[in-house]
């Protein structure tokens, strides 16, 4: 307890951005308190409360952004326990099948026991009571043979009743689907994910790279007080501004990001590394400038300090030392965030002029919002000069990232993949809601969502920013409340400017929701390391094969090898196909079982001998269970599967239709077989096979019955 109090104090004093556990002791202590909280069965622990009280003291954006991450730390171990349990659980379908197989097994056992009892009783009563024969010692072997024969018939009934092909059919169907899904660019890591996908009711997708091509190109720019709707002519830009712009883009980006010549003639240049930076470098090349000389002049080891991009700052800065020993910092990032930190802007002559808050508001209205509404990502490029002495305090980020001079704002287009709108239409027709979760500006996100068909103008839906989303789902204490999420998620279609934690919160909120009668089955796509928690939490996690990090792939169930949203639709199709294949197989299998058991049972009761012999029944069992199950479990899917709504988790395996089919077919087959059994010898003018003595050779009569039975099964399958 004391340690926990100390921990709380430590957190309250700390800076807004620092996570509480900095030194080893505190870290282990945080872990201990997390474990302690688990032992008490409570999720809330010192860390969480403290971080909440801190968020109240300093209600900055940063605190809001970081806060949920801590509560995630507290709950980590709990989630881990759940995850290990979750992997051991059977999939929904396998659970249903196991239950069904057990029920059929019990029924079969009862039937076989009754068969044996009736046969034995009938024989003993007939022999020793009605015919009053004494039990002679020399007759014992014969009687024993009779009893053994009855027992064998009983066992046969049992063996036929149990559908041992069921688990096999599921596994084969899944394995077959997985192999075929490879061709559809789905690499399945967990077999049951494929079948879960058939029940999916919601997909939370990233925007960049999944719905769009992830080939960023600058299409608009605002430089020197002019808003250019296409790439400006290099001569129209002041030379000072141009030099600053080229330097700011070339130096303040990862040096691993490059634009290489195309592999084939006439193809587009290859973009390597961070795609947004590639777009900016492409802009430099479009202005007939080159970024390579700038980089070779200022190699990576000469960079003085680098503030890398993260989801809290939403910007990136690099500090260099100029020849006169003074410092210059280049910054780039989300325009609305970087512009807030600008106090000057370069005019047409390349001279800085004052940039007041009201100028900024006007710029947002006149430049940024129009760009965003065209579905462009707006990036602001800025710089700031520092004197050589006294050297600034580089760790005090709030002071450093301030008083910038804006060089330009560019609008980067990331075109929607051509096949995506069609794929999303298919999803919506199949009863799956597609939601877009992105780090982009809300206007950009909305524009792309409309292009994709996620939202249709005039519909009643929500587009929220991460901050607003957090505000709506938390109570006064800053805790997430399920009923608040329930008010939002059914209408939410776009979540913009979201942190990875928001994504996790949304997925968890939809899955835990009791708002709908069926529990929602959620699929999530992610590529970044920070998408790990959401991918793990979702029922099916899709990771990007090309853009995805290893962490994302590890956390996922299916990897999209071409990063394409339309491959998800293929996964849904295969998942539904698995379910339908199993249903077909079940219907076929149960018809065989019902008929065989009833024939054996009634035959035994009326003629003291099963019309279908033990070996024949076992042959039917082997052939029908294995080959037929293979044939029905490996049918390819069709587009029509996407025209129906997903089945719920609680939908019974044997639907009304299947029940009608099974019983109807059974009645037809039984009528035929019993007709052959009792009047067949008259129809074909052959000897009757009924009431044959022990060890008699097989009769023509019963062979006809067996052949008819097998033929009916084969045609039933087709």
Automatic annotation (TrEMBL):
Residues 1-89 are annotated as: Disordered. The chain crosses the membrane at residues 109-130, 150-176, 585-604, 662-680. Pfam families: Cation_ATPase, Cation_ATPase_C, Hydrolase_3. InterPro entries: ATPase_P-typ_cation-transptr_C, ATPase_P-typ_cyto_dom_N, ATPase_P-typ_P_site, ATPase_P-typ_TM_dom_sf, HAD-like_sf, HAD_sf, P-type_ATPase_IIB, P_typ_ATPase. This is Plasma membrane calcium-transporting ATPase 2 isoform 1. Residues 25-37 have a biased composition (Low complexity). It is a multi-pass membrane protein. Its main location: membrane. Gene3D superfamilies: Calcium-transporting ATPase, cytoplasmic domain N, Calcium-transporting ATPase, transmembrane domain, HAD superfamily/HAD-like.
């Amino acid at each position: 307890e004391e340690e926990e109090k100390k921990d709380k104090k430590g957190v309250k004093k700390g800076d807004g951005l620092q996570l509480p556990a900095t030194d080893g002791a505190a870290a282990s202590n945080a872990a201990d308190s997390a474990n302690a909280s688990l032992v008490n069965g409570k999720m809330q622990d010192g860390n969480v409360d403290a971080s909440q009280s801190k968020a109240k003291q300093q209600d900055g954006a940063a605190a809001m952004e970081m806060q949920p991450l801590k509560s995630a730390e507290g709950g980590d171990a709990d989630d881990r326990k759940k995850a290990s349990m979750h992997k051991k659980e059977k999939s929904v379908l396998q659970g249903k099948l196991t239950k069904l197989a057990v029920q059929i097994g019990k029924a079969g056992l009862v039937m076989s026991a009754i068969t044996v009892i009736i046969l034995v009783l009938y024989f003993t009563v007939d022999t020793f009571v009605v015919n009053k024969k004494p039990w002679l010692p020399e007759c014992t072997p014969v009687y024993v043979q009779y009893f053994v024969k009855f027992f064998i018939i009983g066992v046969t009934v049992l063996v036929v009743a149990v559908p041992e092909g069921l688990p096999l059919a599921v596994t084969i169907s899944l394995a077959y689907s997985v192999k075929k899904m490879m061709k559809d660019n789905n690499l399945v890591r967990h077999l049951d994910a494929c079948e879960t996908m058939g029940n999916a009711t919601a997909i939370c997708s990233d925007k960049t790279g999944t719905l769009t091509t992830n080939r960023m190109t600058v299409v608009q720019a605002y430089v020197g007080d002019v808003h250019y709707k296409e790439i400006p002519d290099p001569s129209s830009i002041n030379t000072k501004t141009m030099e600053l712009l080229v330097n700011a883009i070339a130096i303040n980006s990862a040096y691993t990001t490059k634009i290489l010549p195309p592999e084939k003639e006439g193809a587009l240049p290859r973009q390597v590394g961070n795609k947004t930076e590639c777009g900016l470098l492409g802009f430099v090349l479009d202005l007939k400038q080159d970024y390579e000389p700038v980089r070779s002049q200022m190699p990576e080891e000469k960079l003085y300090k680098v503030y890398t991009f993260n989801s809290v700052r939403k910007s990136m800065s690099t500090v260099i030392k100029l020849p006169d020993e003074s410092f210059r910092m280049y910054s780039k990032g989300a325009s609305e965030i970087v512009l807030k930190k600008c106090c000057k802007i370069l005019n047409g002559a390349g001279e800085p002029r004052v940039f007041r808050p009201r100028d900024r508001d006007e710029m947002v209205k006149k430049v940024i919002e129009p760009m965003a509404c065209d579905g462009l990502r707006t990036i602001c490029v800025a710089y700031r000069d520092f004197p050589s002495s006294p050297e600034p305090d580089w760790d005090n980020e709030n002071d450093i990232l301030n008083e910038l001079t804006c060089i330009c704002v560019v609008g980067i287009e990331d075109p929607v993949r051509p096949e995506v709108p069609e794929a999303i239409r298919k999803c919506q027709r199949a009863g799956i809601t597609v939601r877009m979760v992105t780090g982009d500006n809300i206007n950009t996100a909305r524009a792309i969502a409309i292009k994709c068909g996620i939202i249709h103008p005039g519909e009643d839906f929500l587009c929220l920013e991460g901050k607003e989303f957090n505000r709506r789902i938390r109570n006064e204490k800053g805790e997430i409340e399920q009923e608040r999420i329930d008010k939002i998620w059914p209408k939410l279609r776009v979540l913009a400017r979201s942190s990875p934690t928001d994504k996790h919160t949304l997925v968890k909120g939809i899955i835990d929701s009791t708002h709908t009668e069926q529990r929602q089955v959620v699929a999530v796509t992610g590529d970044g390391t920070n998408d790990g928690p959401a991918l793990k939490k979702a029922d099916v996690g899709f990771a990007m094969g090309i853009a995805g990090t290893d962490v994302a792939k590890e956390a996922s169930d299916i990897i999209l090898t071409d990063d394409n949203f339309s491959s998800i639709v293929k996964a849904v199709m295969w998942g539904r196909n698995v379910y339908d294949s199993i249903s077909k197989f079940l219907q076929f299998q149960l018809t065989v079982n019902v008929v065989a058991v009833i024939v054996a049972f009634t035959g035994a009761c009326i003629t003291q001998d099963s019309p279908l012999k033990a070996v024949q029944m076992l042959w039917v069992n082997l052939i029908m269970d294995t080959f037929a199950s293979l044939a029905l479990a490996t049918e390819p899917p069709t587009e029509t599967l996407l025209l129906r709504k997903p089945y719920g988790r609680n939908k019974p395996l044997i639907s009304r239709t299947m029940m009608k089919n099974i019983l109807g077919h059974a009645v037809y087959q039984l009528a035929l077989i019993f007709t052959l059994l009792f009047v067949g010898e008259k129809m074909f003018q052959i000897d009757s096979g009924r009431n044959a003595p022990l060890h008699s050779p097989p009769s023509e009569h019963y062979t006809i019955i067996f052949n008819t039975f097998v033929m009916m099964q084969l045609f039933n399958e087709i």
